[in-house]
Specification:
The protein contains 13 helices and eight strands. With 361 residues, the protein is of the alpha/beta class. α7 packs parallel to α9 and α10 packs antiparallel against α11.
Length: 361
């Protein structure tokens, strides 16, 4: 075989290997997009998958680009109900352009590699990923959405032809009330909607709800609209007042409020306080990051302190303290916080190494 023929054979073999069908019946952490090494996704193909027939598709959008997490939650149900499940490793909270690019890439990649039923395409998202999934369904005529821990964005519920929505949230989730209200309004408008809740906070639905969600999207389970509850409206109003009070308070008052909420949250009837604490933590981390990027270091440090007060076991809160204190020039505090973040398992080793180098060790 000549050099040219050998080279061509090698290229053809490489291309064949690149698009080889992944294993079936197991969660694959990372499948690279053909021709685009910046994008990848987690994948589950049912053990009975064959390209000879068309299969329903569920695409999951995690707010942190952790595609494997939702795919693992849906794997057992997907095996039972015959769904292909994909979790983007690129879509995440932040600029909408990032998630839009991830969706565009998957729209091109998935039909080329897998046998997908174009009449059974569904999206699922957590938090910001849920809002993206709902927007995607509107724009692309998807058949349904699993809206986990967030409702439609500021534009509200669309007036177009409805698609099925499985609305789900943890009972201690700060977005529980908006998901509940969305499901109630959807039901009143005649949308095919099913509301569910689970014990937990701002997190992916457990496997039991994943099973129910796929049953609903498959048409094997009917709609279920939540009741128009006076008690729910009272809790939603109280939650709203608590968050406004914290947002408008000075740093010292914020810390007093958080300590008060923590005492309330420990009680059996402390559900709204638990929701408010989750909100306070996520607000502090996300706004603190924005303040740091805007070089408002004192304000960023104050936000990081609130995050640690709410969840002293959270590695990312301690990392926020370390970065804000480093920006302020307090190397001693920054080093102590960085050590704590590493001790608690902060996973971004590049950020840890960069900050250690900046701090002189």
């Amino acid at each position: 075989m000549g050099l040219a023929s050998s080279t061509l054979a090698g290229l053809l073999l490489g291309a064949a290997l690149q698009v080889a069908e992944p294993p079936r019946g197991q969660v694959i952490d990372r499948v690279g997009v053909v021709g685009n090494d910046r994008h990848s996704y987690a994948l589950f193909l049912p053990s009975t998958y064959t390209p000879d027939r068309k299969w329903p598709l569920l695409v999951c959008l995690d707010p942190g680009g952790r595609g494997k997490v939702p795919v693992e939650r849906f794997a057992a149900a997907a095996e039972k109900h015959g769904f292909i499940v994909v979790g983007s490793n690129n879509s995440r909270n932040g600029p909408m352009s990032v998630s839009a690019e991830a969706i565009m890439v998957l729209n091109e990649e998935l039909p080329r590699r897998y046998s997908i039923d174009e009449k059974s395409r569904f999206a699922c998202g957590l938090s910001g990923g849920s809002r993206v999934a709902l927007s995607w369904a509107q724009a692309a005529n998807l058949n349904g959405v699993i809206a986990n821990a967030a409702a439609f964005g500021p534009s509200g519920i669309p007036k177009q032809k409805p698609f099925s929505i499985y609305a789900v949230a943890g009972v201690d989730d700060f977005n529980y009330h908006e998901v509940y209200a969305m499901a109630l309004e959807l039901g009143q408008r005649g949308w095919p909607v099913r509301f569910a809740e689970f014990e937990g906070g701002h997190e992916w639905l457990p496997a039991a709800q994943a099973e129910e969600a796929l049953q609903f999207l498959s048409g094997k389970l009917g709609p279920q609209v939540p009741p128009d509850s006076k008690e729910e409206r009272k809790m939603a109003d109280r939650f709203g007042r608590m968050t406004v009070e914290l947002a408008n308070a000075d740093e010292g008052t914020q810390k007093s409020l958080v300590n008060s909420w923590k005492k309330q949250a420990a009680k059996p009837d402390g559900r709204v306080a638990r929701q408010a604490l989750v909100w306070a933590f996520i607000r502090s981390v996300e706004e603190g990051r924005q303040l740091l990027a805007s070089r408002k270091f004192l304000e960023a440090a104050a936000m990081a302190d609130i995050a640690v007060l709410v969840r002293p076991e959270a590695a990312n809160a301690w990392m926020a303290v370390a970065e804000s204190q480093a920006a302020l020039g307090d190397k001693k505090k920054a080093r102590a916080a960085l050590d704590k973040a590493a001790e608690l398992g902060f996973r971004d080793q590049e950020r840890i190494a960069a900050l250690r180098e900046r701090l002189g060790r």
